[in-house]
Amino acid sequence: xxxxxxxxxxxxxxxxxxxxxxxxxxxxxxxxxxxxxxxxxxxxxxxxxxxxxxxxxxxxxxxxxxxxxxxxxxxxxxxxxxxxxxxxxxxxxxxxxxxxxxxxxxxxxxxxxxxxxxxxxxxxxxxxxxxxxxxxxxxxxxxxxxxxxxxxxxxxxxxxxxxxxxxxxxxxxxxxxxxxxxxxxxxxxxxxxxxxxxxxxxxxxxxxxxxxxxxxxxxxxx
Amino acid sequence: xxxxxxxxxxxxxxxxxxxxxxxxxxxxxxxxxxxxxxxxxxxxxxxxxxxxxxxxxxxxxxxxxxxxxxxxxxxxxxxxxxxxxxxxxxxxxxxxxxxxxxxxxxxxxxxxxxxxxxxxxxxxxxxxxxxxxxxxxxxxxxxxxxxxxxxxxxxxxxxxxxxxxxxxxxxxxxxxxxxxxxxxxxxxxxxxxxxxxxxxxxxxxxxxxxxxxxxxxxxxxxxxxxxxxxxxxxxxxxxxxxxxxxxxxxxxxxxxxxxxxxxxxxxxxxxxxxxxxxxxxxxxxxxxxxxxxxxxxxxxxxxxxxxxxxxxxxxxxxxxxxxxxxxxxxxxxxxxxxxxxxxxxxxxxxxxxxxxxxxxxxxxxxxxxxxxxxxxxxxxxxxxxxxxxxxxxxxxxxxxxxxxxxxxxxxxxxxxxxxxxxxxxxxxxxxxxxxxxxxxxxxxxxxxxxxxxxxxxxx
Lengths: 222, 459
Prior knowledge:
The complex is a heterodimer of chains A (222) and B (459). Chain A has helices at residues 7-15, 18-30, 35-55, 61-84, 107-118, 132-142, 157-168, 188-193, 203-217; strands at 94-99, 122-125, 146-150, 178-182, 198-200. By secondary structure, chain A is of the alpha/beta class. Chain A has a 5-stranded parallel β-sheet, sandwiched between helices. In chain A, strand 3 (146-150), helix 7 and strand 4 form a beta-alpha-beta unit. Chain A is globular, with a radius of gyration of 18 Å. Chain B has a 6-stranded parallel β-sheet with strand order 11-7-5-17-16-15. A 3-stranded mixed β-sheet of chain B has the order 2-1-13. In chain B, helix 1 runs antiparallel to helix 8 (239-251), helix 3 packs across helix 9 and helix 11 (342-357) packs across helix 15. Chain B contains 15 helices and 19 strands. Chain B has a single domain (100-453), classed as Monomethylamine methyltransferase MtmB (TIM Barrel), CATH 3.20.20.460. Chain B is 47% helix and 13% strand. The interface between A and B is large, with 32 and 40 residues.
């Protein structure tokens, strides 16, 4: 059976081989493949499969991080070509993400961050213990569509509420950012009560939630 | 080396150690480091077992963990440097670590002792839903429901959701007020249960160093209570954590830190988590001067510690520790089930049996309903967990394995269905602090069932 033309690229992404992934993507371009097609038909199904395999715990965070690095390396090479073609592919969504002030847990947030990246979102990860105002400032600076806030410590949750209020009570920002929240003590009910636009129960559902929020941003039905 | 000198040495290493980017530490030092030692030592858990039955494999996990920790160290987020100890230093410090500690006072004084595999002495039972959210009016009855159980040796308190009607904010005066209130209410529960000298830990509302130091100086904390604090996953620290350590050391308190590796995280799967967990227990002893080394490895999606793959990694790790060191090691049972469900009872039995035959010196919890649903925990599930631990001392590892497998088969399919059950007032009379007939009946039913599996709960 002949190899699928994307097999080489997908193998390198799955291996997290940064340089080899970028080289294979460039080889495909030189062979006549359209950069947008490479993303849509070559990379996206691969990333979807990687996300699914993590959801089934068949692969783990290190593999996710390496695959994300590989895709970022491909983006560096192909992005100028996409822009030159006038494609808006890379406008899948921009997400600012961080663990809220007072909380230093980062593994769960890191998993969400990487899953978003391998799902095609541009992500600015602010790290841990981020003050509410800093999250908002970074979202403005990054021109984010979505703000994701994580928190595992109950006494930190009021600061998460502060961040949401800083957006929702500001007429200039209320419609600019969609916010979703998650973390151990965060429930859907709490998220609704504090005015979050979305709630992620776990890392996999965070990607689904970000995708849903992007549809709202774009005015599409959800 | 006295404790203060040792602490200064650790702080100096955090100031002088090699500089590394945090992401490099995560990916190269930890994640790739784990993969390397797993490969080097040929570590492979038997996928058919939950309780490890392979002594050689446990010993290999130990060697791999020492190798990992000697090359990986602990990253300080404040200094951007890695705190390193060489293999000789690690082995010496672990050899010198405490193998027993006395907790509490008077008739309720208990001694936690390092245990071996097949040890006939049961692990201590630390009953309580440590750090789980609780409305103020239920804090005392819930805590009392654990403390009043004779089988509970030491206790850990839940945590308040509000103070003076307001949400508690870390790094604010509200956190200090809440910490003092938790310490006061815990002391009140001890007295009401007739066990004023029972050793406790808690004050988990005070996550900042300032609030923690304030509350542990409140006068409500007994000299032989435990000072519990978490390190940052995986193998990281900051000065705030060292501030808590310094305070505990100067008070002469029991240093009781914990590290909770995330399954599927930087350690990867069963083998990697087993090695990483073992390395983190070693790190707690070496870098955080632990009297007792604790953990509750956590599922990335459901946040429980009772998933079969997590118990498989935990059993392998704790057997590695029990066979190769005499550390005091504890595990927190975080079941997905809550009160009023058989699920939580099955999970408590499985976790207690696994922990007991794997050499844990103390079992905490259960933090029912994964410890995140307000007031969804009660003393009755701790009673059964303690009884199961005592009974498991009469079992071989093979016999315990069979019981754990049977128990897991009862609830494994419910893990992702959040069987959080009922709240405390729905399963206990809040005034008398006694379980309802329905909840007690369910407990008796499961107990009989487990006796039928071969767990000698009736002897």
